[in-house]
Specification:
- By secondary structure, this protein is α/β, with parallel strands linked by helices.
- It has a domain of about 180 residues: TIM Barrel.
- Strands 1, 2, 3, 6, 7 and 8 form a six-stranded parallel β-sheet that branches.
- Strand 4, helix 7 and strand 5 form a beta-alpha-beta unit.
- The longest helix is centred in the N-terminal third of the chain and has 56 residues.
- About 30% of the residues have low confidence.
Length: about 290
Amino acid sequence: MSRLRTPFVGVLLALLVLVFGSAASGEPSRQAAVRDTSLDSGASAHRTAGSESPTATAPSAAAPRRPAPQKPRSRPGKATKPQIRQRSQFRPSDKAPDRSRTSQSRPSAQGSANGRTVYLTFDDGPSQYTPAILRILRATNSTATFFELGFRQAEHPAAVAQVRAEGSSVGNHTYNHPDLTSLTPSEVRWQLTRGPHGRCMRPPYGATNPSVRRIVAQEGLREVLWSIDTLDWSRPGTTKIVKAATGPGVRGGSIVLMHDGGGDRSQTVAALPKIIRTLQQRGYVIRRIPGC
């Protein structure tokens, strides 16, 4: 019995060694195979990532780039000729500066020319009211001086001849009624040369200074202001216009300022017959300014 157990034990041990030896030798193979498989999958994954990366980082063709906003280019200024106010900005006497009211304290040298003559003057025309004023002057055997604007003469081309045909005179009131003291010498000359042709001129708003007077003289013109301002440009009413034009300040040689243009002058037209009649009853005659 003991003899049988010994070989049996040896065989059993041999089988165990064989079985466990095979198992031990097969494990490294499986590990190597696993490593090979992981390496292959890693390489495949790397190749896949490498092939996809360009398309992932490339910009989308459906979303074009927006151009950067460009700054507006500044246009160079032009200074080839004087800057003249546009007609749409011009309201001759409706909004005159305060200076137009105080200029009555600066009468022209004509103020004492004739002890029995009053000089009526009309500014800012010609207009649709000018013919009515001319008819009143004719009916009362009177004349006056009309200080007209260049661009209004272009609108009423027959008015100048009508004024002169009635024995009245035309003076220069510039082209479009700027404050001459705010302009350069070349701009003042531009205004005068494009204003109405005449021997006398009246600066808009009564605004003048030594430089303006010098240029006016160089252009062969005589500057004429006024001594009585009726303020008819403000449309204060017919009664007030008559009172201002015939008040105690009016005397022989007075130059009376009124308007036939620059707005609604119906009150001036309505007041004129009574103004002339009142002055004539006092012994005055109504005449144009001599030399204009």
